[in-house]
Each structure stands twice: as C-alpha cells, then as structure tokens.
Specification:
about 25% helix, 1 helix, four-stranded mixed β-sheet, single chain, alpha+beta
C-alpha cells in the first residue's frame, strides 16, 4: 500500500506517492495557495482526492515550515 507525502513550502507544495519500500512512484508540485485558508485546504483536497480514488493509501504525511 502506498503512502502520500506532502511538503508545504512558501511558494510550492511538493508531493509524492511512495510505495512501502520508500520508492517514489509519482511526484510533482503545485503553487502554494495563499489567498485564504479555504483556498489552501481546497488545493490540498484537489491534490489528494484523485490518488485516494486510484490507490489504497495507507497514510498521508504533511510537513509545514516553521511553527504550526
């Protein structure tokens, strides 16, 4: 079962789908949405949902810069 990893940065959100051996199956990046909290959450939802429909994701990891 794969894992979905997200790295939120100030300008880009990088993401990858990893298998159980930590091999990268897919990866890409999208611009970080800064207009509002809702726009940001919506962008992550749009990013994750296609993978949830296509794969049986075991876990999702998200990293943020600085203090949350």
């Amino acid at each position: 079962m794969p894992y979905f990893c997200i790295d939120v940065g100030g300008t880009m959100v990088k993401y990858a789908l990893l298998d159980e051996h930590e091999a990268v199956l897919e990866h890409d990046e999208i611009p970080t949405q800064k207009e509002s909290k809702e726009a940001f959450i919506h962008s992550l939802s749009k990013l994750i949902n296609p993978y949830l429909k296509s794969f049986e994701i075991k876990g999702i990891g998200i990293s943020f810069p600085g203090h949350i």
